[in-house]
Design a protein that fits this description.
It contains six helices and nine strands. By secondary structure, it is of the alpha/beta class. Strands 3-2-1-4-5-9-8 form a seven-stranded mixed beta sheet. It has a two-stranded antiparallel ribbon with strand order 6-7. The termini are far apart. Bound molecules: S-adenosylmethionine. The site of S-adenosylmethionine has 20 residues, from α1.
Length: about 210
């Protein structure tokens, strides 16, 4: 399937209408790898975090429980965000929700941490990746933190029926450019609800302080 704008949104809305959030292949009951990396950064609890393509993921629940007070979740699928809001009940009122394609997102304010698990890897066209990086630069403060998790270089070639681009450290850094310094790489052998192993790689980076 071509990962173009219209088909992209339709695809993801259908996924979240037809499947329960705990049946999708990327489902995690506990997003341990992301939480560990966020803990390593030692960021303050009042710093602003955006989970890009967070969908119905429970990362935001754990971040609320950890005391983070400025959280945002963005997803192309309204249905996925509705699942998360229903689950969180009144706690959902304290979250910023954005229904948007990340390649066209206009951030209303800056963020200190950008988290993306399994979204960037769907951008199979160079132009979309360029736009993603531009949005990232518009959204993240200088010296801001970045976590991107993609399928590993020897991971699956498709996710949710869509082609993906798999990354290792050199290829991911080449996409992001010199403004981002790679600090840590972690691997995850994710077990899908159908018990199939998927290799992910998590990249932790920091935006450099650009001095003109
Ligand atoms: C594989 S799922 C990962 C969900 C979540 N990050 C997790 O780890 O559980 C990919 C998510 O990204 C969303 N998505 C896909 N393409 C997107 C885009 N261009 N902009 C924003 N969200 C997108 C999908 O709706 C879906 O929720």
């Amino acid at each position: 399937m071509e990962n173009t704008d219209i088909s992209r949104k339709t695809h993801w809305e259908q996924i979240y209408k037809n499947k329960s959030p705990s049946d999708v292949s990327w489902y995690l009951t506990y997003p341990g790898q992301s939480l560990k990396l966020i803990e390593t950064m030692g960021i303050d609890k009042n710093q602003s975090i955006i989970d890009v393509g967070g969908g119905a993921s429970v990362l935001v629940d754990y971040l609320i429980d950890a005391g983070f007070s400025r959280l945002a979740v963005l997803d192309i699928s309204a249905q996925s965000l509705q699942h998360a809001k229903t689950r969180l009940r009144e706690k959902a009122n304290d979250i910023e929700w954005y229904e948007a394609d990340i390649t066209h997102f206009q951030p209303p304010h800056l963020f200190e941490l950008w988290h993306d698990r399994a979204v960037f890897h769907f951008l199979t066209h160079a132009e979309d990746r360029k736009q993603y990086v531009q949005v990232l630069k518009n959204a993240l403060i200088p010296e801001g933190h970045l976590i991107i998790a993609t399928f590993a270089i020897d991971g699956p070639e498709k996710c949710s029926g869509l082609d993906v681009v798999r990354y290792d450290a050199p290829s991911l850094c080449a996409e992001l450019g010199d403004e981002f310094e790679l600090l840590e790489v972690q691997n995850e052998n994710h077990l899908t609800p159908a018990n199939i192993e998927q290799k992910f790689t998590y990249f932790r980076l920091r935006r450099r302080l650009v001095i003109n």
